[in-house]
Amino acid sequence: MKKIVLFVNFSSRMENAVVRYPVTPSETDEDLIYGYTASFLSDLFTPKDSKQCNKVTDLQVEDNRFLSYAGSIDYKTKLQREKANEHECTEGTIDLTAIRDQAKHENSATDIQTFTLLFIFDTSNPQITRKARVYHRIVFQVGSCLAFEEGRCWYVGSEVAAIKRMKKEWVQRSEEEKVGKTLQEELIYKSDLVEQLKRLYDQVNNEARVILKLNKWIDCCFSMQPLELFKKKVIRPYNAFLLYSHSKKLELPLDPSNLLAKFLKVVGPNVTFAQIHLDTGMSYDQIFELAAYAEYWGYGKIIDAIHHHSLHVSNR
């Protein structure tokens, strides 16, 4: 992936905003994005009809492939949800109505009409073709989560408004205050949205899985492995599981099962699934499912067990 861009069109008179990652120290919001202005890309990938929103658009132009998700926010649904939550309040608890009215007043200026999440890929990279469905799923689910949080608590609008404010404050700083710092580092440190976009960019490019926590509570987990590779995979009791890193250093899913943690602790390149079955009491069905799950999420690879008489051939 070359870049992630988030276009936000506000319902109020507030100027529309662009959030991009990564950026160079000298890059500004007015700079071209691979030969195109931000306003052109925003108009191109933002549907005029809300019925066309909440879908993934795939477009290739010369050396760039664009995957976008345009989300529209139904603020009527948001107000209905607030009223429903008020009825859930019990006697003796904090009056949430006053809190919501205050939040509504503070965030009314950040109500957004639409936002567009845009992934930009280099078409010369063969991964974009092989993993096209994976990228489609990621941009759709991340965009859907952003739309949900915006409808629930003005997450996107409030974050983008704060980002614009931090950019203005950065411009007003003296050169001495900027020594050893960059605007991007400041935004990553202070903005949850920018931090998650950075994490998304880094993991899509460098990791076998993507694990995000939007607004510090919505779990977004994706495997970078195409699911089609595992549909015809055959697993046998004499197979073993080779971890790509030590089990203590693995970043497990945000909701791991005890069986998965137990499985990853006992596996090894010379430990067959038959031996794990005898040592742990787990059934073969459980072991095979856990092994396929662990390989799908990029924790390791199912291999033929290695023995002292095994022969190895270098692929270099």
Mean pLDDT, all residues: 83
Major β-sheet annotation: 5 strands, antiparallel
User: Tally the helices: what do you get?
Assistant: 11
Strand order of the largest sheet: 2-1-5-4-3
Topology:
Elements: E1 3-10, E2 17-21, H1 38-45, E3 56-61, E4 64-72, H2 75-87, H3 96-107, E5 112-122, H4 127-130, H5 132-153, H6 155-172, H7 183-190, H8 192-206, E6 209-214, E7 218-223, E8 239-243, H9 258-266, H10 273-280, H11 284-296, E9 300-304
Helix pairs in contact: 7-8, 9-11
Walk me through what this model shows.
The protein is α+β, with helices and mostly antiparallel strands and 316 residues long. The protein is 41% helix and 19% strand. A hairpin with a 6-residue loop joins β1 (3-10) and β2. Residues 87-106 have low confidence and may be disordered.
Task: Describe the structure concisely.
This protein has eleven helices and nine strands.
Task: Give me some keywords for this one.
single chain; 9 strands; 11 helices; alpha+beta; 316 residues; two-stranded antiparallel ribbon; elongated; five-stranded antiparallel beta sheet
